[in-house]
Amino acid sequence: MSLLPPLDKLKIPVIGSPLFIISNPDLVIAQCKAGVIGSFPCLNAREGEGEPNMLEIWLKKINDELDKHNQKNPDNPAAPYAVNHIVHKSNIRLEKDIDICAKWKAPVWITSLGARPEVNKVAHEANGIVLHDIINNFFAKKAIDKGADGLVAVAAGAGGHAGTLSPFALIQEIREWFDGPLLLSGSIANGGAVLAAQAMGADLAYIGSAFIATNEANADQRYKEMITQSNADDIVYTNLFTGVHGNYLKGSIKAQGLDPDNLEESDSSKMNFSSGSSKPKSWKEIWGSGQGISAVKSILPASKLVERINNEYMEAKKTLI
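Above: the chain sequence. Below: its structure as tokens.
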């Protein structure tokens, strides 16, 4: 598929997905320098009384560090970065955040939990492109109709707010009518899976959980270690913690005194992103993860993880030739 700039200049066909709380400027910068698009949720830039402009501070740091890298390495430039906006109606920061991202000309915008034409318009006026994440073909069509440039297909097995459809079915249905940028999310944690995503029709892989177990990630050390010690059988799919179904580490649920095999259903009407958090305080240590984490054996610098994925990707290509 032909990709829109700046997606067409990546050394590795990967975007590091925006991870709630975990993605920060250090992780994004390391991902971009390593050759994949790094991203973060704007709501991660918490704004207190002392730092009312934290999102601006983050964007300045990312832009400055990537500019310095590119000046020193003209033959090996960093990948662009992406910002993630929760466009659900309860996010009272949205208007302010999109204005700040437009000011800094964020190159890639990832939108979640609803499709908003007015957000797409602001991104386009700032010369950015918009990728909207979806869990089925119905929402995919709505997103494109409302002005998104591309799609992130969140299939079964993805970390956080995951869908239930097989990636084969989801990509196949979208490609019947859409030939624009298409990313696949769901259990992708090694280079072979990246190549498989492209083989079934996606342009890029969308990888999140593997980056939790990196040095730069803003995650509890116990969280990182649990990622390296877990596999697909250790993942629970529930909507209890945010009102939207997602995948979580069974061990973190047990640690809070809950039975992961007998969780109640949550009322989805009580979702609230206005504070920058979708979880009650008592559940802040319920940790999200996708099903592909058995590929993650140790905690590494993000650059080493990208290097490992790239080596596997190139080796998988050789194996198929």
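The two ends are 20 Å apart (CA to CA).
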